[in-house]
Amino acid sequence: MPDHPEAAAGLDQAELDRQYNNREHVANSAELMDAYKRRGDAYAKTAAKVTNIAFGPSPAEVLDIYPATSGKAPVLIYLHGGYWYSRHKDDFRFIAGGFQPQGAMTVVVNYALIP
Q: Which among 96, 103, 99, 97 has a CA at the least distance from the CA of 64?
C-alpha cells in the first residue's frame, strides 16, 4: 500500500516512483544536465559573485549570491530540484547567467541531501 493512499489514485509505490522519476521521462536528461553544468561553469568564471555562504549547520547548506547589476533590482532565489536526494547548486548556476545580466540579484541555494 502506498504511503499516501489518498494521493496515489490506486498506484503502487513502484509506479509512483516511476512517475516522479523525471530522468526516466527525458531520454537525454544526462546530456542536458551536463550542458547546463558547463554553461553555468563558464558563466561563473567571469560573473561577479559571492559563493558558499553558510546558512545552516550542515556543510551542504550554502548559497551563492550573484549581485544585482543595477541599484534597485528584483531578487531571484533559486532552489534546485532533486527531491532532497540529488543535485547540487553548482549544477544550476547557469540560472544566474539569465537573470544577473538583466539586473536581477540571483541567489542559488544548496541544501543537505537525504542519505
A: 96
Q: Are 30 and 81 in contact (CB under 8 A)?
A: no
Please state whether 99 falls in left (phi above 0), alpha (psi between -120 and 50) or beta. alpha
Task: Classify the phi-psi angles of 88: left when phi > 0, otherwise alpha if psi is within -120 to 50, otherwise beta.
Answer: beta
Q: Closest Cα to residue 12, out of 2, 23, 24?
A: 2
**CA dist., res. 83 & res. 17, Å (int):** 12
pLDDT at 94: 96
Mean pLDDT of the chain: 88
Strand pairing report for 62-66 and 50-54: antiparallel
